[in-house]
């Protein structure tokens, strides 16, 4: 993990730990009008919200914060040119909670990002 943060700093990227929405709100105005590709790794969510991933790690964000982040992007001036959602492993979640959450996330991305 330290290597990822060091690399991000070296190339001018910003990674936020434990929060997404507030740091995102600070960055979005700088991206207005620019083409942006959005990638979401489902393991950003706390395992309580998405246990079906290969890398569960306590301390993730809530599904509510992730959906609010998607809506913030959709309502900004950012030109979303593509998006994906990765790391979903339904085999690890017999309740299908992760798949249902992923479906909701994709739905909100489509409704918000496609103009």
TrEMBL record:
Keywords from the named record: Hydrolase, Metal-binding
Question: Which Gene3D superfamilies does this entry report, sorted A to Z?
Answer: Ureohydrolase domain
Q: Name one process (GO BP) from the record.
A: putrescine biosynthetic process from arginine, via agmatine
Q: Which PROSITE patterns match?
A: ARGINASE_1, ARGINASE_2
Q: Which InterPro entries match?
A: Ureohydrolase, Ureohydrolase_dom_sf, Ureohydrolase_Mn_BS
Question: Per the record, a Pfam family?
Answer: Arginase
Cited PANTHER family: ARGINASE/AGMATINASE, GUANIDINO ACID HYDROLASE, MITOCHONDRIAL
Q: Which family does it belong to?
A: Belongs to the arginase family. Agmatinase subfamily.
Indicate what this protein is called per its UniProt record: Agmatinase
